[in-house]
């Protein structure tokens, strides 16, 4: 395992642990998900170099674009939640109420 693979694996694992353990605020959950997406982007961008491939792929760019769209949607949900509930605590959100 190279240092790049170890760094990507440990960063992804820390983001998953952060998402699982620290879910008090919506902002922290969104930041953990964004960290996971950036780690996947880095792993997809590094993998052709570690495999000694001459061609680069378009997959990291597409994944980064989808991640940006997801971050925009997450921020829109954060603003809407903060306006309606006056906080971003996940415990105050009730999915049964509309």
UniProtKB/TrEMBL annotation:
GO terms for cellular component: mitochondrial inner membrane; NADH dehydrogenase complex. Its EC number is 7.1.1.2. One of its GO terms (molecular function) is NADH dehydrogenase (ubiquinone) activity. Keywords: Electron transport, Membrane, Mitochondrion, Mitochondrion inner membrane, NAD, Respiratory chain, Translocase, Transmembrane, Transmembrane helix, Transport, Ubiquinone. GO terms for biological process: ATP synthesis coupled electron transport. It is an enzyme of class 7 (translocase). Its main location: mitochondrion. It is found in: Mitochondrion inner membrane; Mitochondrion membrane. The chain crosses the membrane at residues 26-46, 58-81. It is a multi-pass membrane protein. It catalyses: a ubiquinone + NADH + 5 H(+)(in) = a ubiquinol + NAD(+) + 4 H(+)(out). Core subunit of the mitochondrial membrane respiratory chain NADH dehydrogenase (Complex I) which catalyzes electron transfer from NADH through the respiratory chain, using ubiquinone as an electron acceptor. Part of the enzyme membrane arm which is embedded in the lipid bilayer and involved in proton translocation. Belongs to the complex I subunit 4L family. PANTHER family: NADH-UBIQUINONE OXIDOREDUCTASE CHAIN 4L, NADH-UBIQUINONE OXIDOREDUCTASE SUBUNIT ND4L. This is NADH-ubiquinone oxidoreductase chain 4L. The gene is ND4L.
